Amino acid sequence: MTLLAVERIKLFSTRSPWWCMLLAFGLTVGVTAIIAASWGDSPMPVLASVFTHSFGLYVIMVMAALAVTTEYRFGTIKSTFQAVPDRTSPMVAKAVVVVLLSTLVGLAAAFGSWGLSWLLADNTSELALTTANDWRHVAGVGLVYGAGALLALGVGALVRQTAGAVSIILVFALVVESVVGFIPNVGDDIQKWMPFTVANKFVMGDPDLSSLPEGAGPPTVGELSPWGSLAYFAAIALAVYVISLVVVKRRDA
Q1: How many helices (H) and strands (E) does the chain have?
Q2: How many CB atoms lie within 10 A of CB 102?
Q3: Domain limits at 241?
Q4: For this UniProt entry, which residues form the secretion signal (predicted)?
Q5: In a domain? residue 55
Q6: Which pLDDT belongs to residue 22?
Q7: Neighbours of 208 (CB within 10 A)
Q8: Is 213 inside a domain boundary?
Q9: Do the beta carbons of residue 106 and residue 148 sit within 8 Å?
């Protein structure tokens, strides 16, 4: 509990986490407000209220990476490892704090977007959370944010430099996963197993498209079920994080 308190204090003692949380929430809810206000007379489905969840996800992953790279930048990680020589305990405590915080931000952004859609959409007959899929579309955003934060924390611990870690996260998520689909013959098959593509299926998969215009809605991607998609994304995040723990223990701070 002491390590958790220490990591919480270290995280909230700088401005960057506060700005990242505010930006993640504001960007997600703000763009959703624009979508809801301009939806028109057709019923707005639950799925449409979380179209923008990935915007906040990328910001939260930047926050998670900063949680560890900032310590390496200013040398405070050395004091932490001197106080706790096994190194694993403080890194695990940091992960618990960052993942829980990211999950809460994801839930706040998702339910905030959904609630704002209720207020701004002209037709809310399809916005009620009446099925398990409806709840997954909204509450599932928090789980994806938490897993994404763990992945970013692992990348940050491996790279140790803020610019490098943030570049890897954003370039992979925004560029690599899109470009890989253009590889002849095998691009589409590879793209279906890209981590962020699969994570998106957990939130957006198996929707009720009856109220959407023809051709609208997310494409069908991947071979996994929505919950299998979450397990796959979480497994990748955990694997990267475990590798980072091994590397952190073996190299100099």
Answers
A1: 11, 0
A2: 30
A3: 2-208+218-250
A4: none
A5: yes
A6: 94
A7: 16
A8: no
A9: no
